[in-house]
Fold this protein.
Amino acid sequence: MLNVAGKTLIRDISFCGVPENGSNASMVDVKDGKIIRIRPMHYDWKYDPKDMNPWKMESRGKIFEPSMKTLLPPYSIAYKNRVYSPARILYPMMRVDFDPNGNRNPQNRGTSKYKRISWDKALDIIVSEMNRIKEKYGPTALLYESDQHGENKVVQACHGAGRRLLRLWGGFTQQNRQPDSWEGWWWGSKHFWGCEPVGQGQQSNLLYDIAKNAELLLFWGCDQETTPWGWQGQLPSRLSYWWTEIGIKQIYVCPDLNYAAAVHADRWIPILPNTDAAMYLAITYHWFKNGTYDKEYLKTHAVGVEKYEAYVMGEEDGVPKTPEWAAPITGVPSRVIKALAEEWASKRTTVVIGNGGPGIRGPYATEAARLQNICLAMQGLGKPGVNQAKMIEWGLFDKPDQYAQPKSLRVPNLRKAYRGGHPDETNHPSFIPKTYIPKAILEGQCDWYGVESETAPRQDQFVHYKYPADGCSKIHMVWTDSPSWITSWNCGNDYIRAMRHPDIEFMFAQHICLENECLLADIILPVNTKLEEDDIAVDIFSGQYNLLFPEHKCIDPLGESYSDYEIVCKLAERLGLLEKYTEGRSVPEWIKYGWETSRCADLISWEEINKKGYYVVPTADNWEDVPAGFYEFYKDPEKHPLSTPTGKLEFEATGLLKHFPDDLERPPVPKWIAKGISHEETIGTERSKKYPLLVCSNHPRWGVHSEHKDMIWLREIETCKLKGPDGYQYHPAWLHPLEAEKRGIKHGDVISIYNDRGTVLAGAYITERIMLGVVYIDHGAKWDPIAVGEIDRGGAINTIVPRNTTSKNAVGHAVSGFLAQVEKTDIEALKRNYPEAFERPFHPCAGPDIEGWIEGGK
């Protein structure tokens, strides 16, 4: 292979941030100490393909095989933009008006500028503040925000490297990330079909099952041309083209003609955001009425069917859930609902999800999740071609039933060498669900059920917790190594107010780039990118071949940046805990330990893997024989029960009936909930008269959550950024031409999306790819405050999403399917009212950068 760059190094450039789940193995060409280019990793660079035991799917006269190279997404190929970003933090910095020995000015967080300080000064202040807070309030006064979804690192620990240190130090309060990608499944479906830990269906060998047996694929809120990119690349795209080639029909149900629907859909059915529950109910009404469902299957595989049927047919509340009833709620004509119900019942149908799309992360998402499961159950869940398939996270959390791709001989795993925090970690007695952080700080106390960890079992949802926990302190200090809260979670403006609260005496952040809540920190520490450090990695999510490879740094760290793990080592040394924290191992020793405990040390020696640079794990023999999805449950529910209390599909959830029998927002039998004590975010409610549009907010097309927002190659694309008349690149918001015309808005205009929680500016992208009554804007844009906690210029839509959680007793976040209004923005008026915000410099191609926030502009 041509080596044009002096040296070529193998790196995992993916962004899940959990050690089991690397992907997007890349070849990085380096010359003269600079990254020249990034390109796909070629499996056959150092290996003969026959040694990989290549898998092959044969179906309907066609063949599908893995590529001989990784299928990288744009983020990975363009990642040198992130390495050399104008927003890179290269030195420790401190707020200019923060004095640890005097006035701390917490009210100025988000407006204050920064000045460069030395590492010694930064570490001295941080350690002094840690010890002061501990002595005054106790160790649980320190809140540690440390979640996944960053660069995939193992020894160098993308997030959570401080957890071990803080436990050695005496304790802390842990921000527990609730299951943000899986809210409806986690809080809802686990009560219907079990499927720990996240509530999504069993995935084993489903890609092959679809090819052999499915006749219809319903892509419900799924965009496999976008969402999988940062996690596993583009194999889902190749598969979708092949499924069309072999004659499997694809129908897409979503508010927007998303990027997958635009190229794969045989039909697009637009549906108003967060109304899927009503449509599922109408479909099952049609089946009950016409007898077009598998009655015999339900007799042996399900419980509570009669209770559900009584609700659907109107016996319970006098309202039959007919297609005519659902049509005005969903925006889908009744004839279309009937036609879909009939086609679904007449064909072997698999429902395909990304992670469920925004419909699974909206108000009362538990209902849509369970109702989708019920639809599958009524058609014989688990029979060949009838399952719930995912286009992302194949092999999640190292669970065998989550490997949808052909089985590998071995699944390499680096958990034992991982130095960061893991989603399955608990931190009793002091923890807070991430969705409750603002409430805890602003109100001083709160209580909830569940989320002792992101992977906690269903039973934990019935356990009551509170803040402050008995014997623990309120929060007075915040340490974040995952500054993505404002632009990815519930009501970011509430979080901003919480971090400016006088109770928060000190806040520090460590990160690669100056973005989001870094702007609220008193001290900021510079983190290098993964291309500037040594590590070890796996690639298992990509779906083609599993890989294990040592990672050698491509370039020296820029500025004075260090890895997250190295930064925590510096703190540990000052606290006198370094030897205990590192367990006596150096970084190279931890990397080698990763290979030793990888499950592959018997397949390749340490010397050989370093010589070749990587190891390709062969495909297992007889992978075709692995039972697909729920097939074993379908064949024998007594021998292969589910993890529900009854072992069966629970149309009436026995756990919810026992613990929350009177919960109107997550009732034992799933229902359509237009509004409740937690939310009024539906068209037709009183609130919709003032805010008549529903906001659809997807996983971002051009980034993973809040990452990649400064990558100039991507920002040239109009669906990534739209340049306004002031030269600023605005985050695009899609509007239907008729909605735009009513408001006097033209393509490229700067618009304001607002409700009672705040205002977000965006660039108007006028297109018929979004249905009437909806404004679509991706989450994850970089927060750029005009009025802190009120108006955002950067397009951070999560600053105005609902502050309340999924429902009263389900503390997930509800970040799509909420009400807002849109109008054309008077930029000149904003400039007059907020001159400092508009005078702040920004990079013309990379957006908000360091210059705008440094005292003196340098």
Summary: The CA atoms of residues 313 and 343 lie 21 Å apart.
